[in-house]
TrEMBL record:
Its main location: cytoplasm. Residues 4-161 form the Glycerol-3-phosphate dehydrogenase NAD-dependent N-terminal domain. It comes from Paenibacillus cookii. NADPH binds at residues 12-13, 33, 50, 107, 141, 256, 280, 282. Gene3D superfamilies: N-(1-d-carboxylethyl)-l-norvaline Dehydrogenase, domain 2 (1.10.1040.10), NAD(P)-binding Rossmann-like Domain (3.40.50.720). Residues 1-18 form the signal peptide. This is Glycerol-3-phosphate dehydrogenase [NAD(P)+]. Residues 181-321 form the Glycerol-3-phosphate dehydrogenase NAD-dependent C-terminal domain. Sn-glycerol 3-phosphate binds at residues 107, 137, 139, 192, 245, 255-257. It catalyses: sn-glycerol 3-phosphate + NAD(+) = dihydroxyacetone phosphate + NADH + H(+); sn-glycerol 3-phosphate + NADP(+) = dihydroxyacetone phosphate + NADPH + H(+). Keywords: Cytoplasm, Lipid biosynthesis, Lipid metabolism, NAD, NADP, Nucleotide-binding, Oxidoreductase, Phospholipid biosynthesis, Phospholipid metabolism, Signal.
Length: 346
């Protein structure tokens, strides 16, 4: 495999991961449509729009030319927003080679089709979905760029591909585990954003730590329930991609989803929240997708449903929380269709 690595695109997470790669490998190129952003990365070693005050490795190069970015690359990391993933993957197709390693680090669904990002990429590049590698886990770009200790997971049905991705990213500050359950890793990474929105909304309403702890716990059960229904391994949701990512996204000041939820709890409307954020809030689109998935598979997702009503039906956040608290009494351990260990590995 060529030692060149291409990264698409230069948002906060893409830039942070490109920096990790550039610390490990000499030839890393990041692609952006913005000539101003490219010039700043190349000349000042900064990406001030997304990661202000963060110094980027001097060997990280940027370009607006997709062909230049991908040419002779042995690996391509795609970190496009979920709504742009198909367009980016389609543009990449013209320069794609079968010997390239494909990794993505986007947490979300294609809202119109409910497809996961690995499915979208495989369709556009004409490769097996199981050969795509998914990178996920508790990891804020603002901390990764400062080389704070971070641990993530890379998942693929192709164990050689996962091991190759692990090698590319692994260093003293960035620890990487592998996992075969790419379905569960993708579902956990996307769905936890909904719960993070809810946690932020609870905080914005001033409901305190007790309420947030309950919301996170029941949210994890909700994510696991739909994940198992779709065929994921339940153990994945108790790992880095599940509870690990949920905790960091639902409690950190760096989390866009938590900040967006907090603003909703303070009485801001969705359009106001998005205008003030200035960046993609994946949890909003994911809530819309989860609403459809829940109905399609007949799996109850009460937190996602209430958030859907707040986001898309103008429901008052306080009434939404009251609706959650006022649900019929249940036992804590809800039945789920769990497979045996042998079935998971067959």
């Amino acid at each position: 495999m060529s030692n060149k690595i291409a990264v698409l695109v230069a948002g906060s997470w893409g830039t942070a991961l490109a920096s990790v790669l550039a610390c490990n490998h000499p030839n890393v190129v990041i692609w952006s449509r913005s000539s101003e952003q490219v010039r700043e990365i190349n000349e000042k070693h900064m990406n001030s729009r997304y990661l202000p005050d963060a110094a980027l490795p001097a060997n990280l190069k940027a370009t607006t030319d997709l062909e230049e970015a991908v040419k002779d690359a042995g690996a391509v990391l795609i970190v496009a927003p979920s709504k742009a993933m198909r367009e980016v993957a389609r543009s990449l197709k013209a320069y794609w080679r079968k010997d390239m390693l494909c990794i993505h680090a986007t947490k979300g669904f294609e809202t119109e089709t409910l497809k996961r990002m690995s499915t979208v990429i495989s369709e556009e590049l004409g490769i097996e979905e199981g050969d795509v590698v998914v990178l996920s886990g508790p990891s804020h770009a603002e901390e990764v760029i400062r080389r704070c200790p971070t641990t993530v997971v890379v998942a693929s049905l192709n164990q050689k591909a996962a091991a190759a991705a692990q090698y590319l990213f692994m260093n003293a500050d960035f620890r990487v585990y592998t996992n075969r359950d790419m379905l569960g890793v993708e579902l956990a990474g996307a769905l936890k954003n909904i719960i993070a929105l809810g946690a932020g909304m609870s905080d914005g309403l001033g409901y305190g730590d007790n309420a947030k702890a309950a919301l996170l716990t029941r949210g994890l059960a909700e994510i696991t329930r739909i994940g198992v229904e779709l065929g994921a391994n339940p153990l994945t949701f108790s790992g880095l991609a599940g509870v690990g990512d949920l905790v960091v996204t639902a409690t950190s000041r760096h989390s866009r989803n938590w900040r967006a939820g907090s603003l909703l709890g303070q009485g801001k409307k969705v359009d106001e929240v998005l205008d003030s954020m200035g960046m993609v809030v994946e949890g909003i689109r994911t809530t819309q997708a989860a609403h459809t998935i829940s109905a399609k598979y007949g799996v109850q997702m009460p937190i996602a449903e209430q958030l859907y009503q707040v986001l898309f039906e103008n429901k008052d956040p306080r009434i939404a929380v009251e609706a959650l608290m006022g649900r019929d009494p249940k036992t804590e351990m809800e039945a789920m269709k769990l497979k045996t260990w042998e079935q998971w590995h067959s």
